[in-house]
Amino acid sequence: MSDATTFYLTTPIYYVNATPHLGHAYTTIVADAMVRYRRLAGDNVWFLTGTDEHGDNIARAAASAGVSPQAYADRISGVFREAWKGLGITNDDFIRTTEPRHTTVVQAILQKLRDAGEIYLGTYGGHYCFGCERFYTEKEIVGGKCPDHQTPFTWIEEENYFFKMSKYQGWLIEHIERQPDFIRPERYRNEILGFLREPLQDLSISRPRTRLEWGIPLPFDDTYVTYVWFDALINYVSALGGPGDPRFETYWPHVQHLIAKDILKPHAVYWPCMLKAAGLPIYRHLDVHAYWTVDGRKMSKSIGNVVEPSAFTGKYGNDAFRYFVMREMVFGLDADFSEKAFVGRLNADLANDLGNLVSRATTLIVNFVGGLVPAPPSFAAFGTDVPDALEKARGEVAAAMEEFAFQRALAALWEFVGAVNRYVDTSQPWALAKDSTQRAMLDGVLYTLAEALRCLGVLLAPFLPDAAAKIRAALGQTGEPKLADAEWGRLAAGTRVQKLSGLFPRIDERASGATRTSSTPPAVQAGRAAPVTIAEFGRLDLRVAEILAAEPVPKSRKLLKLTVSLGAEQRTLVAGIAEHYAPADLVGKKVVVVANLEPATIMGVESNGMVLAGTAEGTLAVLTLDRDLPPGSKVR
Ligand code: MSP
Fold this sequence. Notes:
It is built from 21 helices and 26 strands. By secondary structure, it is an alpha+beta fold. The strands form seven sheets. The chain has a six-stranded parallel beta sheet, with helices on both faces. Strands 17, 18, 19, 20, 23 and 26 form a six-stranded antiparallel beta sheet that branches. It has a four-stranded antiparallel beta sheet with strand order 5-4-6-8. Residues about 515-530 have low confidence and may be disordered.
């Protein structure tokens, strides 16, 4: 297998102190779509997921459930495994950090680092809660008291082993700078480079067993167990059998890690330093997505809004759930989940656009030519843009998948679905069928429809595996599809087509609990935009942004490139305001931006948001605030 065609993808290993929810499911689903795509393209793929089972939190959860940590981990790990099976996830392996194959590799790496002088005994000081029996980080401490016990913290110091992470700071910065796509999308790379501007500390990698028993003993001092992150990160290596194992040698050089922004630091800082110190190759890419909220709020047990995938897949099917989460979230930006939005997309994109197309096209072929695909027409004379639309979609899907831009891949495929739907409307095969002189034309149209569906059956396979398989079966296609099959003109004349209707049944939105009355927006009336529901408006993330820098976009009369602060993060935006503002007049202004707009590259500059402005008769004015608010403030 040549280098270019080997691909190893990992998800985070999930903690077993909670059962799988929308967040875990999203990461695992996009990983699954990615590996299915790569397998379709003929790559040699290894796909790993699993569970993270050691540490304080798990030990505490087990204690409150009245069972041993191992029994507790066995149970919840099983729940994850079953959930992924139910969702049709095609992982090649499932690692658990309590497995001997993992602990052996962790201990071997620890010993190697200790022998190499990378680990030393030092003193660790922190804020300790005796009620919780654990240290709290600075970030967790609000108001100086333990949130659970309402008691003040005690500063305690204890001896611990440290990994000499600080010495890798310079190397890591250089590595990230030399390899611009090491951490993607760019905002997360910038976040880490920002973090690395401060001195990097050594990492405490042990916990005394007197405090915590539930972990992997240090091989060189069994009065300590390994810090849970140091243990967990190594799963990506141990699951391949560790250095020297043929599986490790095959896949490790091609590893990419997929995570959400919550665990960026351990993956982007600790892990590369650990690999470097252990003399192992550094991973290729870290692909980072953002967070799901539910009905506009953080998902949390105490609010009671945790979305369990099975509640939706049971009701609407796996493919609908996969489609919604991949189409709705712009990879890298936060997104909101609501049943209303879910049902809206299901009805509009899946039932109307795709489902209707499949049902219309297969019915026309069965009714007008007895279900036998006619001979392909001579396309030069025939004149349809469907093959070109397919070519475009294929190219866009390939480019989007390179960047983990699942939403763009699906948008491109739906452009194609739209083009084929329009083709049915304009070519009117039902009218051609009435006129015997139009027989050749009718054959050409029906061939085009059959071929478009066949190609969709291939291209949709990574995203909607069940629906794609049904489409391929209806088009008489057997065997495993390959990406190259989605090339126009491969469908053989005489192939038998069967009617396929009800691929995605329409959901009655009132019955579903999603109360929006119509998924198709009312027509725009003269001069007045269609009404927008509160929920639709709520999907816009409007924020106060402070303009930090402004400069013209080269070769453009209209565009300015703006660097803005949203409080916690900086963004680059492109705004079409150069004819109305000098760059210098904008710096320091507080404006309003749409923060969750799909990123777009405009004249070579990636824009991550939109500045709001009003216009009238040639005058343009950006929206500013009439009272000061900090950047990042929400605008409603
Ligand atoms: N065990 C660690 C990871 C160790 S990896 C060596 C851990 N586990 S976790 O159970 O908390 O899972 C975190 C991951 O779950 C996130 O990185 C993301 O993949 C997923 N998500 C959890 N909540 C999420 C959202 N609300 N939104 C999107 N994904 C989120 O951290």
